[in-house]
Design goal:
2 domains, 8-stranded antiparallel β-sheet, two-stranded antiparallel sheet, single chain, alpha+beta, 8 helices
Length: about 250
């Protein structure tokens, strides 16, 4: 039986909900698909929405334009059809972009500053200038968990909402802890998370939970995959989120 439940602030949870319920048309809401930010090319330097790093609102704005370009009526189409068009048009969110936007809502609420003004970019020279010019497109998983910005959590019972779980496989991937449940001895029972994942066909935003008693991971929507297939997870806490819990 859990006695302690903690979750991300509502401002951050609202961001997750916005990606899960993108407004594609009047009375038509869809789940955001995955699109990974290319390391080079015009998408990296074009609109943020097409870099895999855009806010839900930026993506919704582009959906209105795409509907006209495609000559479609999204309000009459199935969600999967719209998501397929988004993938074709390279419009979606990737894992670090998704995590960054959630954390950004938190830092804006409590620090009154965007996340990119609080973290440190591991770059210099012209690369540092690019990071300052287009900060959201240059925040990736290695930046978030770099020793300048975060430290590794060794004891799972110390995990808190806002912590990042990294899977460093073929493609670096990160998920964000959204809620935890602890027992009377303050041992972690469950951790809930959210992420945007590629899977077989640019799956997109999903939510999941880890049952620490059984070691089982499960996700919604159930696609037959869970992120723990990617290997051994490592847990990290950003320095900027730790004081937010200490002040509670």
């Amino acid at each position: 039986m859990s006695i302690a439940i903690q979750s991300l602030p509502q401002s951050a949870l609202n961001v997750i909900n916005a990606y899960i319920n993108l407004k594609a048309a009047e009375n038509k809401y869809i789940r955001c698909p995955y699109f990974r930010n290319p390391r080079s090319g015009r998408e990296r330097w074009g609109l943020t929405a097409y870099s895999g790093k855009g806010s839900a609102q930026e993506i919704e704005t582009e959906l209105e334009i795409i509907e006209k370009l495609e000559g479609k009526n999204f309000s009459e189409m199935h969600e999967n059809e719209i998501r397929d068009i988004m993938r074709k048009r390279k419009l979606g969110i990737e894992c670090s972009g998704f995590v960054t936007r959630i954390l950004d809502a938190w830092t804006r609420e409590f620090y009154k500053k965007p996340i990119y003004s609080l973290i440190k970019f591991n770059s210099s020279g012209i690369s540092w200038l690019f990071c300052k010019m287009r900060p959201y497109t240059h925040i990736d998983v290695p930046t978030l968990v770099h020793q300048k910005n975060a430290y590794e959590i060794k004891n799972v019972n110390d995990i808190m909402p806002g912590d990042i779980v990294r899977f460093n496989s073929i493609i670096d991937h990160a998920i964000i802890i959204t809620k935890i449940e602890k027992d009377v001895n303050l041992n972690l029972i469950k951790a809930y998370y959210a992420h945007s994942v590629s899977e077989d066909n640019g799956e997109g935003v999903k939510e999941g939970q880890i049952d620490f008693a059984s070691g089982k991971w499960c996700e919604l929507p159930d696609t037959g995959h869970t992120i723990d297939e990617k290997g051994e997870p490592k847990f990290y806490r950003l320095f900027i989120t730790e004081p937010l819990w200490q002040n509670k």
